[in-house]
Design brief:
Elements (H helix, E strand, L loop, with lengths): L1 H10 L11 H17 L19 H24 L1 H37 L3 H5 L3 H5 L1 H9 L10 H15 L6 H18 L15 H15 L15 H24 L9 H7 L9 H17 L13 H8 L1 H21 L3 H30 L7 H7 L1
Helix pairs in contact: 2-3, 2-14, 2-15, 3-4, 3-10, 4-8, 4-15, 8-10, 9-10, 11-13, 14-16, 15-16
Length: 397
């Protein structure tokens, strides 16, 4: 009996050791969520200081990459412990949470924008945010929103995330072979860009974020987050770090110079060679142009080496608000979409310095408050409930 039990225990797969939370991922995801809020407010002076102004990528790329990184950590460990079926079920459950959050956000955002447009008697909000189709065919628009085929402005990131996770649920076993997973992902990315593959949308054209292209960034995050038993990650630890680091720095400098000459100071664009401008103008975000992909990977590679996971300042007061927001990414993201529209209304009323400062501080404080409340609730939910007082139970009986 004891021998058979020992044999069964020996044949079981070794449980994956529990990894400490990587506060770097939380920090940069929190910063990305804050940048998304800032960039969604027209006329916001802080929008001149976000990541999109210094390199050829923005907070969306960071958000998707870190979403893949977090998925690689969480579901990779479940895959090792429980197998593919249970891990895939957890991914599908997460998809359900995201879907519900997206529909609730869609309803609230549509009501927010529609009421503001009616109250101010100005349809510019409806037109700019691509909600005019909802006013023309509300029932059809609601159905298409449920099918993820109707995506107004600012409401296209969660549908992308949902499809990426559904793809991940099917390809979970490949996480054990990260290089094969990356090879398949890159092949799909190349085919998508070459043949212009896309998912159709109700209003015409394809999705603003093409999942067939953006999956490559998500898969890179997966392979960075996944850890095979007894081994380091497959990509972060490389012997030629200094050479790759130098190339990454050079690439980011070149793209910053081009951004400065074509976006910040367009009068200098005449000094850029014509052949450079021809491909520079074709750098698209919808299908994740290779230059955008290289930019976010270069930035990630440098930060992964420069910011160590054991750095004390990650646990300091200055980093705390962004780490907190990064831990509670879904509620903070959804709230940020709604808060950004309120900030827009405030800056349209007055865009002087006091209002700029007030709108941005109020927005950041609101995001931190949402993150804190969500974190507090989850901690209380995980805390075992105290047993009822025996004296009270006897008195009640």
């Amino acid at each position: 009996m004891e021998g058979s039990l020992a044999t069964q225990q020996a044949t079981r797969p070794a449980a994956a050791p529990k990894r400490e939370r990587d506060l770097r991922a939380d920090l940069f995801r929190g910063l990305a969520l804050w940048f998304i809020f800032i960039d969604h407010v027209p006329g916001n002076w802080l929008a001149n200081l976000t990541i999109r102004n210094v390199t050829l990528c923005d907070a969306t790329e960071v958000f998707v990459l870190l979403a893949g990184y977090a998925a690689g950590i969480a579901y990779g460990g479940t895959l090792l412990r429980e197998g593919w079926l249970f891990a895939a079920a957890q991914v599908v459950r997460r998809v359900g949470s995201l879907y519900v959050a997206h529909i609730v956000l869609f309803v609230m955002f549509t009501a927010q924008v529609g009421y503001s447009a009616a109250a101010l008697q100005d349809s510019i909000y409806i037109d700019e945010l691509h909600l005019d189709a909802f006013g023309q065919e509300p029932y059809r628009a609601l159905l298409e929103a449920l099918l993820l085929r109707f995506q107004p402005a600012f409401l296209n990131i969660l549908p992308l995330y949902i499809v990426l996770l559904l793809q991940f649920a099917l390809t979970l076993p490949l996480l054990r072979r990260p290089r094969l997973l990356l090879a398949i992902s890159c092949a799909l990315y190349g085919v998508t860009r070459w043949f212009s593959l896309e998912l159709p949308s109700w209003t015409g054209g394809g999705w603003f974020f093409n999942p067939f292209a953006w999956q490559v960034l998500f898969c890179v995050g997966l392979t960075l987050g996944y850890r095979a038993p007894g081994g380091p990650g497959p990509l972060l630890v490389l012997p030629w770090w200094r050479s790759l680091g130098a190339l990454a720095v050079a690439w980011l400098i070149v793209t910053f110079v081009l951004l400065y000459m074509t976006w910040h100071r367009p009068e200098y664009a005449v000094q850029v060679p014509g052949w450079v401008m021809s491909w520079w103008e074709n750098v698209d975000k919808t299908a994740l142009h290779p230059f955008r992909l290289v930019s976010v990977l270069a930035l990630t590679y440098l930060l992964a080496h420069w910011v160590r996971p054991e750095a004390r300042w990650l646990r300091g007061a200055a980093a705390w608000p962004f780490v907190l927001m990064g831990k509670q990414g879904l509620p903070v993201f959804c709230s940020g979409i709604l808060f950004a529209f309120f900030a827009r209304l405030a800056l349209e009323y007055s865009d002087d310095a006091p209002m700029q400062i007030g709108a941005n501080l109020a927005g950041l404080a609101s995001l931190v408050a949402v993150g804190w409340l969500s974190d507090w609730y989850k901690k209380r939910e995980r805390t075992p409930r105290r047993e009822a007082d025996p004296a009270l139970a006897e008195r009640a009986a």
